[in-house]
Specification:
Aspartate Aminotransferase, domain 2; Aspartate Aminotransferase, domain 1; binds pyridoxal-5'-phosphate; three-stranded antiparallel beta sheet; seven-stranded mixed beta sheet; alpha/beta; globular; 479 residues
Length: 479
């Protein structure tokens, strides 16, 4: 366990860096500054450089990150983030650019934003993209505001409800509710896909949109998507794609061709920009032409060989982020896409799919798999067979840490009891997949032969089980 005392390293008179003797008059600060800007000097710890290095190295070892090992957190696409992305984002022209510099002095970054929009248009089969949103969830909210503005403008009413499948991520209903809609839940059928008959019952002229994830959160492709699009459009509603699972489609299929009107991207998932721990993320928002006027303002436009920020967008939902969004993330995503090109992106999806299916097949005799048929980029297994021994999905996730693997996503999607959602991504070699499957199989055996070992895991980490509810409710980030 981490003892609080490891934070108390300061000892008076042992600063890390002695400053050189003053070579200017030692004027009291009160004579230099007005009282209202003088603050009480902060009480900084006095620690040597060596202690600081050891302190942060030790802290880095008490957690688990993608740079340490396999991180199959389903739905989160925790792929390797190539170091080249970092190098490009750290070029002084990008890293030192001040957000208040004028568009005339920010031409390079505006061009990059414009070009990234063009690439995403091509990837998704859409007509226009905004890169302002700073997360998938924020893009969802912006997308729902746009749907609202569109209906309002078309027919004088925003309509009242948004349809969302029971397998959806929690941010979908949250975003639609924040945008003023009520939610109606569409059932999944026995195959784990949208129950089209149920959808038909719910779609009517009150319906503003259907928010769909494809492939869905079970990693299954919605085979009826073209039919679904027709049903939704026939009622005058919009089809929204939660693009969190785009890693299964890039280079192979375009949401625009499937009939989606609005799509969000999670650049921090599909296009390998770093994420976790709350950000910073980047969530593009793409639309078909009829929704373009409602995109967040300003938009980057090209005029000849110059780029401008177009603020004159009277139907826009307005700004959703400061300045240009999380620009550093846009640089990384642009680098990733440009480096891979079409063939590389296609290989990404193919490998992500092969890897998920490999895991599914290796685990199928050891875990219950509720919808056991070829999946796309992730597979969902269930720990329900172990609950009679007091073992839940959560315990298996904790025990995996002892085997030096990060946990899959647990208890999501909600339609799977004791769900463990595994997304290996394309960046893992077969050896890691095998080592992970060996660990999962070993834990399945332990869950039967020595359940306490699993219930009390992890046994090898600096921090064991924490009270997550209290940690979330009484967040204390101070040292
Ligand atoms: C299916 C799905 N939709 C939406 C989101 C929200 O995306 P973000 O975390 O970028 O806000 C997530 C995040 O994990 C997700 O898995």
């Amino acid at each position: 366990m981490i003892e609080p005392t490891i934070f108390e390293l300061s000892s008076e008179g042992r600063p890390g860096y002695p400053l050189p003797p003053l070579d200017v008059p030692d004027t009291p600060v009160e004579q230099l500054l007005s009282p209202d800007v003088i603050r009480t000097p902060p009480h900084l710890p006095e620690v040597s450089e060596f202690q600081v290095v050891r302190h942060f190295t030790r802290l880095s070892q008490t957690t688990f990150g993608i740079d340490q090992g396999f991180y199959p957190l389903g739905s989160c696409t925790m792929k390797y983030n190539p170091k080249l992305n970092e190098e490009i984002a750290n070029l002084p022209g990008f890293a030192d650019l001040h957000p208040l510099q004028s568009p005339e002095h920010s031409q390079g970054v505006l061009q990059l934003i414009y070009d990234l929009e063009e690439l995403l248009k091509e990837i998704a089969g859409l007509d226009r993209i905004s890169l302002q949103p700073t997360a998938g969830a924020q893009a969802e909210f912006a997308g729902m505001l746009m749907v609202r503005a569109y209906h309002q403008q078309q027919s004088g009413t925003a309509r009242t409800k948004v349809l969302i499948p029971d397998s959806a991520h929690g941010t979908n209903p949250a975003s639609a509710i924040l945008a003023g809609y009520k939610i109606e839940v569409v059932k999944s059928g026995p195959d784990g896909l949208v129950d089209v008959e149920d959808l038909k019952q719910l779609v009517d002229t009150d319906c503003a949109a259907l928010m769909l994830t494809n492939p869905n959160t079970l990693g299954l492709f919605e085979r009826e998507i073209v039919n679904i699009a027709e049903i939704v459009h026939a009622a005058g509603a919009q089809l929204y794609l939660d693009g969190a699972n785009l890693n299964a489609l890039v280079g192979m299929a375009k949401p625009g061709d499937m009939g989606f009107d609005v799509v969000h991207f999670n650049l921090h998932k599909t296009f390998s920009t770093p994420h976790g721990g709350g950000g910073p993320g980047a969530g593009g928002l793409g639309v078909k032409a009829h929704l373009e006027p409602y995109l967040p303002a300003p938009m980057v436009e090209r005029q000849g060989d110059r780029y401008i920020l177009d603020q004159d967008r009277p139907q826009s939902i307005g700004r959703v982020a400061t300045f240009f969004g999380n620009v550093g993330m846009l640089v990384r995503a642009f680098t990733y896409i440009s480096r891979l090109g079409h063939t590389g992106l296609q290989a990404v999806s193919r490998l992500a799919i092969v890897n998920a299916n490999y895991i599914r097949k290796r685990l199928e005799n050891h875990y219950h798999i509720p919808y056991n048929r070829p999946c796309l980029h992730e597979c969902v297994v269930s720990a329900k067979d172990f609950t009679s021994n007091g073992i839940h999905a959560w315990d298996i996730a904790k025990r995996l840490l002892d085997y030096e693997f990060y946990a899959p996503t647990v208890n999501f999607p909600l339609i799977v009891e004791e769900a463990l959602m595994i997304e290996p991504t394309e960046t893992e070699p077969k050896a890691s997949l095998d080592a992970f499957c060996d660990a999962m199989i070993a834990i399945a055996n332990e869950a039967t032969t020595n359940p306490d070992l699993v219930k009390n895991a992890p046994h090898t980490l600096a921090v064991s089980r924490i009270d997550e509810v209290t940690a979330a409710r009484q967040l204390d980030l101070r040292e």
